[in-house]
Write a structure and sequence with these properties.
The complex is a heterodimer of chains A (428) and B (263). Chain A is mainly α and 428 residues long. Helix content of chain A is 72%, strand content 2%. Residues 1-19 of chain A have low confidence and may be disordered. The interface between A and B is large, with 53 and 68 residues.
């Protein structure tokens, strides 16, 4: 039967506004930007807002409860070193979550990779770079295996990684052997979290980061403006640069302050793990935002059928993402091992994964795929580390610590789910 | 609304005896079809007649089992979406295949991004998207950097069609572009369909709406139970005949000779 389509509603009165793309021009004003931001919030895209609020509120809370200890340079340095492995793991998980998948084995993969590298150092006396390379390769191979099971065989990632979560704990146990703990004595790897950039060099590095950011942002703005493309007003771009500059300078100032407890020694400087995190943040942000690969990851997460029809190999993208994520787990495992100066059979187990997933979600990455950025891992990692660190200072019982951290993840997931519902409702 | 010159020309796309089965079920039986440049061909047929399978076969999503596809007179093999895109075949599916979390420009260039080395060339993509939309006289978009999730149904259809013509495509296949659209939006899309043909594209237009079919089409091809019942200039048939072809596969002396139910 050929059914006649009876038009029922007039969605868009056409021809009312003769000029197209007026939004591109109105977004050039400050008011337009603010309106756009409020619209996005209303539409359910909260961006970095929950994480930033979380950082501010939690900092104030713990400062009020522990005014002597929480905001000291020593504790802030501790907190940042605590955040580093969580953030690094979350930076990989953001990619997995962007696809709408999950990797429950990411934590124990970081343990396996750290164990491989610790054994190479301890048993073979390998140089540090061989150990690091071995960890990265182990991560990539594990990712290839996981990704193949998920993308090629078609087992849900939840099931694959749940099984591997158990299996890899066995692998770590086997690699470490009967000894129970493998100490890490290599100065370079231990130095990631235990040695510090000289104060002068730290300031120079901070200045370089700010300068590079400013040049990139202004350059992009100028290009957009000169070609008549969609661009933000200059004041917003400058404001963003100033904000980044203030954050970098304040953090550098805190980390460069003498935080030794006794007057006799000097303890100051940026731990080497920080530039590692910043470098990976920049590289992965570039990969996700400025390359075809990143664009295709978003597309697969947003509508994998559309991606497939556009000629994108969804299988390839998914396997590559699992490899990338597991390699980041390896980096995270190395930093965690450096912090503890050892690898144990329990490395990467416990709440490691929960913290990392929590970090990504709190930062604004959606569990439903398609929405998220690398910086989410940094912001969310800080929130998690503040909670962990603050509860430690309060000497909260272990049971309460678990309950609170689990509760925070649930809260973040609820915000994500509600935001998504709101976005879906707003579309009709 | 016929375009006389097209009738004399050679088809840009020709199907000869195309077969397609899914497992034991044969969906297409020896389908012949000719698509001419500068012409709108309406592809009509009842639900389950094989329209979707036919266009997915042309697009390479379901490669054909038997028969031949000729493009510009040359036999071609279309094994995947990339093959069809390389030939200049673009399909706008009913579900539009847009990624909600990407903006208009990103969607239009999805899978075929322009690059400077390894860096995406956003500036040139944004300009090209804007030019294409302007050429199609699209005036309903606020910004080409809007997320597709914030667009209305008609705007999405427009973006999907603009995406198809961005590629210098020779054949544009539209799967029920006016279903679920309001009066003004339908008008705009039909104008767009006509403009596509007038700029030299061969357009295949799938629709259930006879008013739309007779308004924009130059030819009509009717599928009946996986067989091509007729592929004729629209001036040679009337509305009742087309409906008969859709529902019975035969109308007077045009249509299928013998129809055994149960194929």
């Amino acid at each position: 039967m050929a059914s006649e389509i009876v038009p029922t509603s007039d969605l868009e009165p056409g021809g009312a506004a003769p000029s197209g793309f007026e939004g591109d021009r109105s977004s050039g004003s400050l008011g337009g930007v603010v309106r756009g931001y409020v619209d996005r919030l209303r539409g359910g895209d909260l961006g970095a807002l929950p994480a930033v609020l979380g950082i501010v509120v939690l900092t104030l809370l713990f400062y009020a409860l522990r005014p002597e200890t929480f905001l000291t340079p020593l504790n802030i340095t501790n907190l940042i070193i605590q955040a580093a492995p969580i953030t690094l793991l979350a930076m990989g998980l953001v990619w997995i979550l962007l696809l709408g998948d999950i990797d429950l084995s990411a934590g124990v993969v970081s343990g396996v990779c750290a164990a491989v590298s610790a054994q190479l150092l301890a048993q073979q006396g390998a140089p540090w770079w061989v150990a690091v390379l071995a960890a990265l390769v182990t991560g990539a191979v594990i990712g290839l295996f996981t990704g193949t099971l998920v993308a090629l065989i078609g087992i849900p990632s939840f099931v694959v990684t749940l099984a591997l979560f158990l299996a890899f704990q066995g692998v770590t146990l086997r690699v470490i052997g009967q000894g129970g703990t493998v100490p890490i004595r290599d100065e370079t790897i231990r130095g990631l979290t235990n040695s510090y950039i000289p104060v002068g060099a730290g300031w120079a590095l901070a200045a370089a980061v700010i300068a590079a950011y400013a040049v990139l942002q202004l350059n992009r703005w100028r290009t957009q403006r000169s070609k008549g493309l969609d661009s933000q007003p200059l004041i917003v771009v400058v404001g963003r640069i100033v904000l980044i500059a203030v954050i970098v300078l304040v953090l550098t100032g805190i980390l460069n302050a003498d935080r030794a407890l006794s007057r006799a020694v000097e303890l100051q400087g940026i731990p080497y793990a920080i530039p590692v995190v910043v470098l990976l943040l920049l590289v992965l942000t570039f990969l996700l935002g400025r390359t075809t690969f990143g664009r295709h990851v978003y597309a697969v997460g947003g509508n994998s059928e559309a991606a497939r029809r556009a000629g994108i190999s969804v299988t390839r993208i998914r396997i590559l993402v699992f490899m990338l994520s597991s390699s980041m787990a390896a980096v995270s495992g190395l930093v965690a091992a450096a912090r503890l100066s050892s690898v144990t059979p329990g490395s990467g187990g416990g709440n490691t994964l929960l913290y990392a997933v929590g970090a990504a979600v709190i930062g604004g990455t959606s569990l439903f795929g398609g929405r998220g950025r690398i910086r989410d891992a940094v912001l969310g990692g800080l929130v998690i580390a503040i909670i962990d660190n603050g509860l430690g200072l309060l000497q909260v019982s272990a049971y309460l610590n678990y309950i609170i951290t689990g509760g925070v993840l649930l809260l973040a997931a609820s915000v994500d789910a509600l935001a998504r519902r709101r976005a879906a409702a707003g579309k009709s | 609304m016929t375009v006389p010159h097209a009738e004399g020309g050679s088809p840009i796309l020709e199907l000869r005896g195309v077969d397609k089965s899914f497992g034991a079920v044969q969906v297409l039986h020896g389908v012949d079809l000719k698509i001419f440049p500068g012409t709108v061909t309406a592809l009509v047929g009842d639900n389950g007649a094989g329209k979707s399978t036919l266009i997915k076969s042309i697009a390479g999503i379901h490669p054909i089992d038997g028969g031949q596809i000729l493009f510009d007179g040359e036999p071609v093999s279309i094994a995947g979406p990339r093959d069809s895109a390389a030939l200049g075949l673009e399909v706008v599916y009913q579900d539009l295949a847009l990624a909600d979390n990407l903006d208009v420009v990103q969607n239009m260039f999805l899978g075929r991004e322009r690059k400077h080395g390894i860096i995406l060339d956003e500036a040139s993509m944004e300009q090209a998207a804007r030019e294409t939309l302007a050429k199609l006289s699209v005036r309903t978009l606020k910004s080409v950097r809007q997320l597709v999730s914030s667009l209305s149904g008609g705007q999405r259809q427009t973006v999907a069609i603009a995406k198809a013509v961005l590629w210098d495509s020779k054949v544009v296949i539209l799967d029920e572009p006016t279903a679920a659209l309001g009066v003004a939006q339908t008008r705009q899309v039909l104008d767009l369909v006509r403009r596509l043909a007038d700029t030299g594209h061969a357009v295949v237009f799938i629709s259930h709406n006879m008013v739309d079919v007779f308004e924009v089409s130059d030819r009509v091809a009717a599928l009946y139970l996986g067989r091509m019942a007729a592929d004729v200039p629209i001036s040679t048939v009337d509305r009742a005949q087309v409906i008969e072809l859709i529902t019975a596969g035969r109308s007077g002396d045009i249509g299928l000779a013998h129809i055994s139910e149960g194929v």
